[in-house]
Specification:
387 residues; Rossmann fold; 16 strands; single chain; alpha/beta; Helicase, Ruva Protein, domain 3; 3 domains; 16 helices
């Protein structure tokens, strides 16, 4: 259910807006406030998913409500409405953090589309906030080897800029971890990090997923939908496995990077976006370019900064630290005490050929914790960690 607050001093307009929204969806729960002060009190006491707020009101005008509400609950999207609209007012409300500005009388289709898009954005912001509370713990860069220290130094230097980054390396090495660290340490950290697994989305849907679509653009497009680039506005988009993206989709991404605009499928209106792009791949993109599967101009747009993540075989000195990290993490997940690995067990694990990299090591550690003795021994490793 989406809770929507309408702040409007004219009772007739409140009733009309409430009726329109209630008839649009059973999932909309509408609350009304007759002036700015009453609306602000309701915002303080309740959690709303969207506020539709008039600008010219007695006691407290809409701009004041917007400013005060953003101080206490900055995640709530505001749609401002006014019968005295002018460009300066619209610009000012957007500067103060409004999601959109609509003149009275509002166009019905535009109002409903704006409400849907604002609610979609609120969902993404809330989810991103929830995930960010876990991110520092879940995306720690474990290791003190020379390759890892070099990557940490690069992240610290590059994160503060808007430079595009291409992360390369085999599967299971932690490329997404590098992307999360880049975003966390950047000035965009308070805005969303939107992840897109390009390999997991069918080629016929990738354009809609990235850029959105309008109602009726194709059979299943029953309503307007914002794409990942719009969702990541002012934040970061992480294009994982970009080497698997189709050539037509690559062309659209290239345009988004060149012009900072996207066009929803089925629309003819460009949408301005401010997005930092981080991409990752386990493929040799130079080889993909030579074989005609990847655009060279897109490669040069993405690879402003190149970060190569090493395989685990190239950072064996980090294995003891990783084992300790996974042991503690697995114990926390299962509500048990961490097991101890003997020095001989750790030494033997350092000798293994880790073709599956860190992901494989994590699985092996979990297996040894479950099947091994009270202290995981060399014999346990020989018995349960075999390839």
């Amino acid at each position: 259910m989406s809770k929507i607050l309408i702040i409007e001093d004219e009772a007739a307009i409140r009733r009309v807006l409430s009726k329109i929204l209630s008839e649009e969806s059973d999932d909309y729960v509408v609350t009304e406030a007759e002036d700015g002060l009453q609306g602000l009190e309701k915002i303080k006491l309740e959690d709303f998913d969207l506020v539709i707020c008039d600008i010219k009101m007695p006691k407290m005008d809409g701009e004041e409500v917007l400013q005060e509400a953003k101080k206490i609950k900055p995640e709530i999207p505001f749609v401002m409405i006014s019968g005295h609209g002018d460009l300066e007012t619209a610009v000012n409300t957007m500067r103060l953090g409004a999601f959109d500005y609509i003149s009275k009388p509002p166009d019905l289709n535009r109002l409903l589309n704006t409400v849907r898009n604002a609610l979609d954005k609120k969902t993404l912001v809330v989810e991103n906030t929830r995930l960010k509370k876990k991110v520092s713990k879940n995306y720690q860069m474990i290791g003190e080897s020379e390759p890892i220290e070099h990557i940490k130094e690069m992240i610290d230097k590059v994160a503060q800029t808007d430079a595009r980054v291409l992360i390369t390396g085999p599967n299971g090495t932690g490329k997404e971890l590098v992307a999360h660290n880049l975003h966390e340490k950047s000035p965009r950290a308070d805005f969303p990090l939107i992840e897109v697994n390009c390999a997991a989305i069918p080629s016929e849907l990738i354009e809609s997923e990235l850029f959105g679509h309008v109602k009726g653009a194709f059979t299943s497009a029953v309503k307007d939908r914002a794409g990942k680039f719009e969702a990541a506005n002012k934040g970061t988009i992480f294009l994982d496995e970009i080497g698997d993206m189709s050539l037509p989709a690559q062309a659209k991404v290239l345009r988004a990077l060149q012009e900072s605009v996207v066009t929803r499928v089925g629309a003819d209106k460009d949408i301005k976006v401010d997005v930092r792009v981080i991409a990752a791949t386990n493929k040799d993109l130079r080889k993909e370019i030579d074989e005609g599967r990847f655009r060279e101009d897109l490669y040069h747009r993405l690879a402003v900064i190149l970060i190569k993540v090493p395989g685990l075989n190239d950072r064996r000195s980090d294995i003891p630290l990783l084992i300790n990290h996974f042991t503690i993490k697995i114990a926390e997940e299962n509500g048990t005490s961490p097991k101890v690995f003997s020095k001989e067990a750790i030494a033997l694990l350092q000798e293994y050929d880790w073709t599956g990299n860190i992901r494989e090591l994590r699985n092996v550690v979990e297996r040894l914790i479950i099947l091994g003795g009270k202290e995981v021994s060399k014999a346990d490793v020989q018995m349960f960690a075999s390839k």
